[in-house]
């Protein structure tokens, strides 16, 4: 894989399908860089998420996470203008400037949820992009995701505003985040009719605990449109890393992991415990961490380019990137599929 000094390359489409016809085959990802979208940049198959930067991770800890990630060959960073009120973007931008790393990294950010420029009107899109560029200390964004599906604004208005930025060179690719299959399809039709830049990437919640949101019509659309899929909440707040196994651990933060919220307690049921037990067994077979197996399972899905996963400290990074080197057997994938169905 490219070293620390490698420059990011954009490529013609290549297949990321995994070989599953041979019953004895494995699911190799060993250091393989994948193409994000139909003809996008080649990216490491794990994206480091910036949600914790400036929030549960200090600037110093964030730098250490990014240094570790880059040291392992990682080149895809995911953030948003709303993460820590923009502080995440600022930290990433300052880190890239201090390391001279901008040309080596693929930066994805999201707009639509910031307090200063909420929504996806034409004016909000323009203002949000300008603000993100300033915080990231760059003159282009590799992948711009629409963080919300703003139904108060005509989709045409949003897509035209984003396309103007693509034509200016300030945005290189456009993606949808948490949009329904119908809206992604509608966006493709509008883009074709008006000659606009189409979506080339997709983000949504997808992991062993939450499969139905993506599997089905959204996955079909992603495959049909050759979208680069970057699943978010890949470890479901740390649950799929094995950090929370009983209710007494839900409010603990001793390892620096983000504490689960919302439906955390609902994971601690029979289904959740069976999933963790299966992950643990397979992790023992590979002599690796539970987080590594949870991510490796996502990487067996041929529509997935790179799951997004956060880290609050550098010690967590090795287990995350190790998923790219774990070859799950057909039987192991089937076991995880069955227990999480």
Q: Termini distance?
A: 34 Å
CATH homologous superfamily placement:
NADP-dependent oxidoreductase domain
**Architecture, according to CATH?**
Alpha-Beta Barrel
The count of strands amounts to 10
CATH class: Alpha Beta
Number of helices: 11
Series of H and E elements: EEEHEHEHEHEHEHEHHHEHH
**Fraction of helical residues:** 25-40%
Radius of gyration: 19 Å
Which descriptor suits the 3D outline? globular
Strand order in space, largest sheet: 9-8-7-6-5-4-3-10
Largest sheet features:
8 strands, parallel
Please identify the structural class as seen in this structure. Answer: alpha/beta
Number of domains: 1
CATH topology: TIM Barrel
Low-confidence stretches: 1-6, 10-31, 253-262
In round numbers, the mean pLDDT is: 89
Portion of residues in beta strands equals 5-15%
What can you tell me about this protein's structure?
The longest helix is centred in the C-terminal third of the chain and has 17 residues. This protein is an alpha/beta fold and 341 residues long. It has one domain: Alpha-Beta Barrel (TIM Barrel), CATH 3.20.20.100. Helix 8 crosses helix 9. It is built from eleven helices and ten strands. The two termini are 34 Å apart.
